[in-house]
Amino acid sequence: MNQSFINFLLNELDNRWKEISILLEAAHEYEEKNQVLHDAICRSVSVLMVAHLEGFYKDLIKNIIEDLKINRNFSDLSSSIQRNYCSIFIDAKSSSHSQNRITELLIQKFKEVGVCISYEPFLFNRNENPKPKIIDTLFENIGIKKIFEILETSEYELVFQEENSSIEKRVRDFTKMLDSYSYSFPYKCENSYFNMKPPSNKKSSKRTFWEEFLDEINRRRHGIAHGSDFGNSHSVESLLLTKNKIRCLELALLHVVIEFFGVVNCLKNNDIHNS
To answer: What is the mean pLDDT of the segment spanning 123-131?
Structure first.
């Protein structure tokens, strides 16, 4: 039984966040000794945490595609994944009719020859900050629509009511649970954790807690990175809270992928969120 790529990513997360923990410890140490250094470290942490999240969502997409490539034939993949893979071979400037026709021909041919998919068509051609729309689109590319509506249905949103110690325990507990679910592919979820019912087709102006949270950390990162924010209004404790929320968001996104592909077994035409 081989370790899945998704499980490998899950078990890398603690190491990835060590540098943030080290910086926060340093900021705490210099809070009274050197305010300028303390503020500089806090500002750096605000930028680095967003960078960590961006690296995570890229690796999440790469690793699920690797698990699918190794374990599933092209003909067994969902229509969403088949069509998005084909997009890399199609001129985006051509008419929608032409694109659809070429996509259908490619899908038919790729089924015949048993082509192996790659992750490039499922990511953006340029670097993108982890804004809600970006994450939403990436999940749509693998067949999961309205990811933030899905997250609203779970215990992961409880982090917005909790303090650091409670969230840290939640991170440990969820990591242990997801490790057992994701060790091999197809992933084995014992129970459905999210409401995977088809989301409403109605557009909602209401933003979820996670979307508002991402808006906030991206604004902060943008202000510092582009020279419009030279101050520091964040304490070490508040930055630690942001770090713990991002860690919970990463686990939540992993959990959705594990449940989605574990429950439906990646079978064709079983996209739960097809409109």
So the answer is: 85
